[in-house]
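Holo prediction. Input below; ligand is NAP.
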Amino acid sequence: MTQYDKIVPPVDGASITIKNGELNVPDNPIIPFIRGDGIGIDIWPATQRVIDAAVQKAYGGEKCIAWFKVYAGDEAVEKYGPNQYLPQDTLKAVQEYLVAIKGPLTTPVGGGIRSLNVTLRQVLDLYACVRPVRWFRGVPSPVTHPERMNIVIFRENTEDVYAGIEWQQGTPEVKMVIDFINNTMKKKVREDSGIGIKPISVFGSKRLARKAIKHAISEGRKSVTFMHKGNIMKFTEGAFKDWGYQLALEEFRDYVITEAELWDEARAADGVTPITKPGAFAHLRDDKPAGNPGSRIVIKDRIADSMFQQILTRADEYEVVCTPNLNGDYISDAAAAQVGGLGMAPGANIGDYIGFFEATHGTAPKYAGKDMVNPGSLMLSGVMMLTYLGWREAANLVETGIERTIEAKVVTYDLHRLMEGATKVSCSGYADAVIKNM
Ligand code: NAP
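Structure of the complex:
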């Protein structure tokens, strides 16, 4: 039994465990939550109410989440003392209970404290940042056909130039690195450079590709696209793509066909092994009816720059996108902007088993406590979480509630200012409307 310093797990819940490589979810799982800083104070209670209402409606009391309040950010400092932004208690709780959800966290400025979000991902080895991006009817969009976008982005979370291996210009350390590059490796780097390292490994790339492909299999998606800049960065981004194809063929041969094979064997591709077996990773959300009978998942790749124009012009040709960290950062927000912006974009950071669901926007401090911001991002992250638990009925209820509320043009200030004839409601009022519309 894990010992905690300042928190006590709820007594009316049970632990999610791992059984035969899968999550084993009891009817009353203990789920740690971090309220979040800034507008977390508004969006978390609204979200919690909506999730609880959906679970109650879906299962009539047979299932119920035992919420476990844990601390990070400003609230943690209040409870645990100065600089205690991410207490051990919190990390231990997420490790023990495997599924957790959080509001946004302030990145403490100065004092050598790293982003709490980055720290959480690294300490818990949450290597896949998963961002589903779809449009809800009625949400204002800058593109002509926002309904064509329905993709899930798998962004690598632990490697790439994001790994934080860098040396500041002018330091003795950067001089050593530049000397090595110039003298030993016989390359030419300017002496007055700063240096960042971009590691991309076989292990890191393959485990992400595995997750993306399993997701495509279990959710009946038609394609997985490796997005990379391998035409220029051959041994990092190019290798990421190559290892992705390799993994797809080594581990999922019965389920996949590469785009190149498709061209070669267009006819022979008919009638091959249908996708019937669910993957081990059968948890993430489903935006379309499962099943892709009679055909295999197409594995393809696209150069990153081309991918940006492709999601604008032919978004419906992409379903699951698997990509290194930096590309994933850019494409996630660009895709979200096409369907209504970050206020509606859910996300999760997922490891081998731990699923940590989060609002993708920040703490918007100027709105904190005003009960006015859009809780959509966190609510939709709740949809992902419920799906991850295997509670699809409840997930569908939340999603339907949001869909109908927006269709009825009942929205918070951010969407209200972009929509004609809409009714503006508060954050908590929006939650009421979603519950009513489930
Ligand atoms: P931000 O908090 O995301 O807010 C920027 C703007 O986005 C807001 O002023 C607001 O725009 C809009 N917005 C954000 N969330 C909204 C919501 N739920 N509903 C409606 N509109 C929303 O970005 P920031 O001001 O750059 O960052 C503030 C803090 O958050 C920083 O400490 C940053 O490090 C942190 N952060 C945390 C996370 C995370 O925890 N995942 C992510 C990003 C940033 P308008 O003013 O136009 O209404």
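The two ends are 38 Å apart (CA to CA). That is the main takeaway for now.
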